[in-house]
Structure formats: C-alpha cells, structure tokens
Amino acid sequence: MAVDLTSFANDGRSLDTIVREQDGVVRLEDIAHVMTRAMVRHAVRSGRWSSPHRGVYVAHNGELTRKQELLVCLRAAPPGSALAGLTAAELDGLQGFKVTEVYVVIPTNARPPARTGLIVKKSRVLTTDDVHPVRQPRRTRLPRSLVDSASWTPHETRARAVILAGVQQRLTRPDDLRDALSRRANCRHRVLIAESIEDAEGGIASVPEREFDQICRMFDLPEPERQAVVRRLDGRYYLDAHWPRYEVGAEVHGIQHMEILNWDADLDRQAEISARGDRVLPFTSFWCDTTRLASGRYWLRPFETAAGTADGLGSAVYVRPRLAARTCIAVVITTAMSFGGWAPYMGAPPV
C-alpha cells in the first residue's frame, strides 16, 4: 500500500518527486525539509511506510523490488559507499552471472552495516576513476566491478569467466580492465586476472575457448584466427577458431547453445558456411575439459589412419588416458585440415 504523498515546496522539489526519483527509498536527511522525524515515525507506525533498516525508509509497506533492495543496502552503508562486484556489473549489462546477494564496497575505515543478503567489502580506492560519478544507483565502473568480482570469488574458473564475459559481451575493453587492475593492491587471482585479460585481447571469449586454445598448443596445431568474421548473406558470423588457409573452422558450444532457437541458428549458419567450402567442426565445452577415459580410445580409431599418426596418438591415450578427449579433438582438426593441404607429424604430448 503506497503512502499518500503531499507536495511540499523546496526549490521546486516536492516529497512525491523525491520519492519517485529514489524509487521510494529515502533517509531522513533526504526529506528533512518536508517531513519531521516524528512524521516519518508516524508513517512507519501507522503501516503506511516501512523501515527495512535503521535510518532507511521505504514509502510503502509491501515487498521490496530488486532495485529497492539495492537502494536499501546502499543507503544503509556509510557515505562514500557504492554497489560493487557482480551487483554493479549486472546493472551495467553483464549477463550470465546473476546473483541474489548484494555487493557493496565501503571506505576502509568505515563501519560495515549488517543486513541479510548484504556482502560488504572494503577498499582504500573509491575515486571517480573507480566509481561512476553519474550513474544511479551509485556503483563502481564496470572494469572495476569485473576485476573485483574475479578477485572475490574463490574459484579460478569463475574468475576467468567473469573477465572474459565482460569483453566478449562488448561491455568493456582489455585496456580498461588493465587500468582497473593496476589500482588494486595485492588481490586474489591477480596473475590469473591479468592472464585472462590477455586472453580476451587475443580473441578468446570464454573459458571453454581457452581450454580449446590449450589443446591447439598442446598438439602444435597452427595458430587459428579467433572470433574470425565470416560473411554470410544476412550479415556477419563469428567462428570461435578459423584456419582459412586450410578451410577449417571450429565452434566450441556451451550450454546456451542447447536452447532451441540458438541450436537452430547454429545449424543454419554451419550449413551455409559448409556449403561454401569450409569445414566447420563443432565441439561441446564438455569435450574441451573432460576426464572421460573409455570413449576417447574408440573416438580415435576412425581418424588414426587418416591422420597418419596412429603410433603417436595411440600412445598418448594409452599412457595418459585423461588426454583422450583432447587428443580426439586434435585428431579431428588435423584430419580436417589435411584435406586443405596440411600434413604434419603429431606425436604424443610429453608425459
């Protein structure tokens, strides 16, 4: 139930204007020119307003929206604080990393607020280089948000994914991420974050693509063009890896490609590119980072003779069975490129 707001004059700003601009979330100092402390307490006691945190008021008594929850957490924090991490990154358009918690960064010497679902971090550096001066709710700039997110997670794979996703989704640039990282002191995963920024600049757009790149290096395959642009009749299409000299491309599909519309579009694009002469090899992200043992050996057999590397590849799978799936991928690529004139000797990787 929304409170009946009466207009009060204050340089043209009425109470309802203030409430509307701040999504109904206010502190007493925001409205002191139009409401006294007693009036605010009466609104809360009568059930027209609510106070989800000490000193923070909401101009209704219903359930908070997501944006109102963010504002309550931010207004509960000390001055100079900002939404941060994945919370701030989501507001700036990052997809695929939705969190239910609210991340807020506060000045180092400030007292952290306590609220269910609120995760508070401290920082010595909260200047306009790191906190956007205009965007509301107040939050860290996207490069800083991504670097913070990567450093706060205990999982290395997720840290890489956050950095790569920010660049892949065209939300930020590697140079901006480097700049943000340079202002961080010793932080968790610092080397890994720097490495992921380099990967993103080189065209690697996801963790599975990085695993695929490692496979190419492991077996000394030619360096591919990453995120290569292929012209289609209806526009452009990006291949995760492309060897134009050998007319071979590769796609590494994650779980999102299983959605029916994405799947249909992938098949349509692959058919068009293949019809024009290129061989497009699709792999799942699971195969790029798998520990399946038995199936790899059977996968190899149809390709060993064609690739002319039966001894080398066979011993790789026998000695180090965990390489089976990766070896299969390498053999498939090698076989496809052999039709384009590439005929290397690919021995077993070092044990």
Describe this structure in words.
The protein is α+β, with helices and mostly antiparallel strands and 351 residues long. The chain folds into three domains: 15-63, no CATH class; 68-201, no CATH class; 203-351, VSR Endonuclease (Endonuclease, Chain A, 3-Layer(aba) Sandwich), CATH 3.40.960. The protein has helices at residues 15-21, 28-31, 37-45, 66-76, 85-91, 142-152, 156-168, 174-182, 190-201, 207-218, 260-275, 285-288, 294-307, 310-319, 324-338, and strands at 25-27, 50-53, 56-58, 82-83, 102-107, 118-123, 225-232, 235-243, 248-253, 279-284. The strands form three sheets. Strands 7-8-9-10 form a four-stranded mixed beta sheet, with helices on both faces. A three-stranded antiparallel beta sheet has the order 1-3-2, with helices on both faces. Strands 4-5-6 form a three-stranded mixed beta sheet. Helix 11 links the parallel strand 9 and strand 10. Helix 6 packs antiparallel against helix 7 and helix 7 packs parallel to helix 9 (190-201). The longest helix has 16 residues, at 260-275. The radius of gyration is 27 Å and the shape is elongated. It starts with 14 loop residues before the first helix and ends in a 13-residue tail after the last helix.
